[in-house]
Design brief:
Blueprint: E1 2-3, H1 4-10, H2 22-30, H3 39-55, H4 66-71, E2 76-77, E3 90-95, H5 101-108, E4 111-116, H6 121-131, H7 142-146, E5 154-158, H8 180-191, E6 195-201, H9 211-223, E7 232-235, E8 246-253, H10 289-304, E9 313-314, E10 334-336, E11 358-359, H11 363-369, H12 382-391, H13 395-409
Parallel strand pairs: 1-2, 3-4, 3-5, 5-6, 9-10
Antiparallel strand pairs: 6-8, 7-8, 10-11
Helix pairs in contact: 2-3, 5-13
Length: 410
């Protein structure tokens, strides 16, 4: 057996900053046992590994040549938190993958990811640490699209919300050109998977006066000929995490014999912040007296105008607001914590550390709010971790819905 961590070091496989897709080709190839790959995909990986064998002696450290690596992929020990399943029940692709919320849910159900794509450099680092696979980059590039296998069962995507240009004569599928939804639609058109599962913000329902969602459904139903039940707003709070996070789910099926679909019923709405609260929190997460004063002043100004904006403290028996990136994202989810003993600042702050026990949530707490397992590795800086979890899907809600999709297709 050869450990993935050793192979990665010996062959210098890491997330690239210069945009090259070679690391993605290599890691996808190494995980592709029992999966039919596009010819270009496999050739690129093999050519690169053969060049390494010719020009370097990196593999000597492992005692494994490129030829041996290619022929012994079945013997790789995936020493990562979430290794690929040995005998998968179905296959899926992970678009706009982020840090892998969809992937965890799908793998928990027996799925094998055969392609992943994510443009953010730091998100790709987190993804690789946990799955042993480096996602491809920009999905709008032809090189990326050509790497998508021709056959897979489910397309998964938490895609950004964009308005379409729908003035004048409507052209359906062509109206979506220039948007990231078009990339999804194009893949569905060319690859025709059995099903798809799309996730977006709740606001998509009313985005652009409801026209955006209407056009999406027209394209999926009329142009691509999928059975698409009415989308549903699903709250993560109903599936075992203490977070009010409403998102719109859109699912579809190629098989026209499928004429009905029931979204999952709530499974657990009992969880509260105390259930996921970290016990030993460093002082750097506690806000300063000066910043707390600023937050109070900001909230008072808005209250005087009749607005409900401003910071909010989530009590231990409460449920968090949706965790989001930017704006008041962290300040809308402050908590109380009286366990701190040493108030000496470890970062440059104005004033002293507040004595009211008010702090920001930690990235690990955000991970728990999204339903990520404890073994999920967080090695990036906090600023990137908050962004990654704030942009992620809530794993339990995704998994419950995915289970219903899988019941229909296998």
């Amino acid at each position: 057996m050869y450990k993935y961590s050793e192979i990665k070091k010996s062959f210098n496989i890491e997330v690239s900053k210069n945009g090259t897709e070679l690391p993605a080709f290599i890691t996808h190839f190494l995980q592709s046992v029992r999966v039919k790959l596009p010819i270009s995909y496999q050739i690129t990986a093999l050519n690169y590994l053969n060049k390494i064998q010719i020009r370097t002696t990196n593999s000597v450290k492992l005692g494994l040549s490129s030829d041996e690596l290619i022929s012994n992929r079945k013997k790789i020990e995936w020493d990562v938190p979430f290794p690929p399943p040995v005998e998968p029940l179905f296959t899926f692709i992970d678009l706009f993958a982020g840090i892998g919320g969809f992937r965890i849910a799908m793998q928990n159900l027996g799925g094998k990811c055969v392609f992943s794509s994510e443009i953010d450099y730091h998100a790709k680092i987190t993804y690789e640490k946990n799955f042993g696979e480096i996602p491809f980059g920009d999905i709008t590039r032809m090189e990326t699209k050509e790497a998508i296998p021709k056959n897979f069962d489910i397309l998964c995507a938490g895609f950004p919300c964009q308005a379409f240009s729908i003035a004048g004569k409507r052209k359906g599928f062509d109206d979506t050109r220039g948007t990231l939804f078009f990339e999804i639609a194009e893949i569905l058109k060319n690859r025709k998977p059995e099903a798809f599962f799309l996730e977006n913000v709740k606001g998509l329902r009313n985005h652009h006066g409801g026209k955006t969602l209407k056009r999406i459904l027209e394209v999926l139903r009329d142009d691509l000929n999928y059975y698409v039940p009415e989308p549903k707003i699903v709250n993560a709070r109903d599936f075992g995490v203490p977070q009010n996070r409403e998102r719109i789910f859109i699912v579809g099926f190629k098989n026209k014999k499928i004429t009905s679909f029931e979204y999952p019923k709530p499974t657990d709405s009992s969880k509260r912040f105390a259930d996921i609260k970290e016990k030993n929190v460093p002082v750097k997460y506690f806000i300063s007296t000066q910043y707390l004063k600023t937050l109070h002043a900001h909230k008072a100004r808005h209250e005087s105008k009749g607005n409900g904006f401003g910071f909010e403290i989530i009590e231990d028996d409460g449920v968090s607001n949706a965790i989001v990136v930017g704006g008041m994202g962290k300040e809308r989810n402050l908590v109380r914590d009286y366990n701190l003993k040493d108030f000496t600042p470890t970062t440059h702050i104005k004033g002293t550390v507040n004595r009211e026990g008010i702090r920001k949530m930690m990235p690990r707490e955000w991970a728990r709010l999204q339903g990520y397992p404890e073994e999920f590795v967080i090695e990036v800086a906090d600023v990137h971790a908050y962004k990654q979890f704030g942009n992620s899907v809530a794993v339990p809600a995704i998994q419950a819905t995915a289970a219903k999709i899988i019941e229909k297709i296998i």
